[in-house]
C-alpha cells in the first residue's frame, strides 16, 4: 500500500535525472533525500517518546482516545484511499466519501490522489523497478526506505501511464488535495492534542506526544507493514508466483489488509479477502454497515468457485489441508463431473493443435 510522508513536501518526486542521465535498472542505487530523512526522524523520535508516555504517564482516557482516534484514521486509509479510491471495489455516496476523506486526512499518509495513483502503480508493476516500494529490495526499503530515497526512473515513467481520470473528477479528492496541509495540521495534530487537554485536563505535552505523535507513528507503520511484511513473510494460497502473501498478524494491525495474496489476485474485491467480515476484517464490516444504510453500494466481490479454481491452479497448497480434508472441486482425471465446461473446452481446443 503506497503512502507519502508529507504530501506538501513530497508531491514533486525527486528523481535521478541530471548530468549523469536517468537511473537504469542495473545502476540504481539508493540516494538519500535528506529532507525526507529529517521528517521521518522527527516522526519516529516523537513516536518513541510518545510510546514511553503512553505506557507510564498518560491517563486511561488519553490511552483510549489515542486508540479510537488511530482506528478512525486507519479506516480512512483502508476503506477510503485503498478499497474505494485506489481499487474502486465499491461506490460511496457523498456523505461517506466526505467522512472517509476526513478520516484519511487524520492518518496523514499523503493525500488521496497521490496515494491512490502510487498504489495503482504498485499493483500494475508489483515487485519490479516500477513498483514504488519494490519488496525485492528488502524489508527496510519496502517498509520505509522507499520514502527516503530518490525514486527509480521506471516508477516515475510508468506512473505517468496510470489511469487517474476518476480521481481528477472527484470533487472530494480534489478538495482534499487543494487544502491538504491545513486539513492534516488540524486533524492529525491539533484536534487529537486539544481533546485530552481540554476535556480531562491531560497535560499538553502528554497529549501531543501520545495522541498525536505516537498515534501517527503507529498508523504509519501499520500500513508500512503491508508493503513489507505482507510481501515477504506468509503463505500464497491463491498465486504462488507473485510476491504478495497472506499474513493474519498484519490483518490484526491493519483492520483486515493482511490477506494480501488474495488481494493482489482479486484487487477489485471490496473485502480484500475470501473470508468477508468473519476473519480479522473490520474494514469489511465498516463497509457492510454503510451498505446497509445505503451510503455504500455496488460492492464487488468474487464467486467462491472462481476463488477455489484459482487456488487449485496457482496456489501453494496452503488453502487446503489434504491430510484432514478434501477439496470438493478437485478432479480425478478427464471425465470427472467436477470439471468446468470452460476447462474442457480449453483442453479440446489445445489438443486439436497437437499432433501425436
UniProtKB/TrEMBL annotation:
Residues 61-267 form the Fatty acid desaturase domain. Keywords: Fatty acid biosynthesis, Fatty acid metabolism, Iron, Lipid biosynthesis, Lipid metabolism, Membrane, Oxidoreductase, Transmembrane, Transmembrane helix. It is found in: Membrane. It is a multi-pass membrane protein. GO terms for cellular component: endoplasmic reticulum membrane. Its main location: membrane. GO terms for biological process: unsaturated fatty acid biosynthetic process. Belongs to the fatty acid desaturase type 1 family. This is Fatty acid desaturase domain-containing protein. It comes from Photinus pyralis (Common eastern firefly).
